[in-house]
Fold each of these.
Amino acid sequence: MPIGPRPSDVPKIRRVVSVYKVSSIITGTFLLLLVAMMVLRYGLGVDIELGGPFGFLTLTPRELIVGVDFSTTILILHGWLYVLYLACDFLLWRYVRWSFGRFLFIALGGIIPLLSFFLERRVPREAAAAIAHLQTEKVSA
């Protein structure tokens, strides 16, 4: 099986890259919020409360939260956004036909803080280079 994208997959790659770029920025942002939330929870012993008796957005000990536990909301949202990020990673891996190691490295973007912002720039360039290489081969053949 040849490595590299198939000509029929080029439009799919372009669509997935556009969704990947957005999902990597959003997932990276929620990962930074998650890191801040973990520092607050395990470092200071407080969670973020939304709409509680002490104000719109407050830092409250976990056992005293009456309103919405915004810390848990951040956890859940990051989890689901990471699933979207991982789905885009999987589709890029499948369509561009990269190695499994590259798939795993891109997947780390939703786990290692700030890596998704770096990959948001790098992965689309590599996908575009794979498409350009495919089109160069097509012209020379």
Amino acid sequence: MTERITKSMAKNIYYGGGLFALLIFLGLSFDTVQQIPERSNEVNMTESVVAGKALWEKNNCVGCHTLIGEGAYYAPELMNVFNRRGASDEATFKGYMQGWMAAQPLDTPHRRKMPQFNLSTEEVDSLSDFLIWTSKVNANEWPPTIEG
């Protein structure tokens, strides 16, 4: 004996499935919002970090680089540049950033050159603080490799 699905049954399946999906979505959204304070590293945000973020946006760094996987995949991921180039030492990293930013544009064959932004020492330190802060955000082990 074969049964056919009636319009009423199909409507109940549609609304029941939609309600179930909505409840799952709301539950996962609530769980994510609950985790943000402990994962965001917001408590360590300083004025220098905020100034570095403003420089990041003003100079459109995301136009070439990625940060936490977001941006243009042209230049390296910078979420872990503090660990890569500074060996997790803030003074070492800030010195590296001062030298790197001053040396731009490098004359490397077959590569697009990073522009010279003519940032002051304080601005480079702020950008460094922003990248140091970003490296301490819990991003589920992103990026997957040390080289980004």
Amino acid sequence: MNKFSFTIDKSLGNPTFARTGIIHTPHGDIKTPAFIVVGTKATVKALTPEQVKDTGAQAILANAYHLYLQPGHKIVEKAGGLSEFANWDGPTFTDSGGFQVLSLGSGYKKVISMDSDLSTNAPKSSRHAFVDDDGVNFKSVIDGSMHRFTPELSMEIQHSIGADICFAFDELTSLAETYEYQVEALNRTHRWAERSLNHFRKLNKESGRPYQALFGVLQGANHEDLRRQTAKFLGAMSFDGYGIGGAIEKSKLGEIVGWVTEELPVDKPRHLLGISEPDDMFNAVAKGIDTFDCVSPTRVARNGAVYTLDGRINLRKACYKEDFSQLDPDCDCYTCQNYSRAYLHHLLKAGERLAATLLSIHNEAFIIRLVDSMRTSIEDGSFEDYRQKWLSRYYH
């Protein structure tokens, strides 16, 4: 039975752009816009599922690549799927593994070029991922063993993991690629999208399990013609929603998102992959993005960085050693209610693991509530005014 659907509740006039809605899944509803917390290996780093829930998180996103390597997607399936395995009772997402296969395999993360004609391209001896028209060969980041992902295997992995929302297998490109290679990779991504959709629908039909949604992934870097082309091509297919991926130049993020949302079906949800900076999220929501995910809130927390309404601060700095004030006076999360900046500074300097937990609680709660407040401002019609006031204070 298909228990997945999306309804739009409110917009600022044109439902293509800033809008609120609800994504209905077998494991519950997601009120949009929403920030989706990343639990890469079926765990949000340093946090229990109960702590994640207390931040206001509605859903988590796990990583097909990492769960395939460890403990193995069949283990997750035997446990009853991601929700049972991770003790998370809400909606779940998994990405396709395409980003990790290519970004980790390149050795240069997002700046790698797969075009051998470019001087910025890493020599093949240092690369750990090799693309062909059928799929990608790659070395494991755990032990260096060789593996191969195809669209069909990615679908089987995600189907076994059992997430409510999955993503089609795509080829990650970077801003270093030539336009000619971007065209080649996009055509390959389109063929992989068709294969992903056909195989995933077959798996859904045969399993008898709760319906799993599949989102198509849009690449095309900073090129308007390619972004609009892929939005039209994938938008005509029977995907349940769409993910906007690839390396995006920060200054052009809103513009690029606008290109694709103008072409995509209005009545299907759009997810922006790997974004969590406040200005980027405001730009994306304004252009019609419904959900986001990013590892950044917990990653920067482990390094002592904390979000506040007056900007990001680094608690490792000596000026916080005797600062016994509340971490963020505008926040009522567990950390802010109970611990001072001085104590958190001490934990960081002492190398105590509790620092990662307490700062991650705050950072996740901060970003989740920010996106929640965007939803409220769309509902009451004050989004543009709220956006201007919030950003002017944060980036003062």
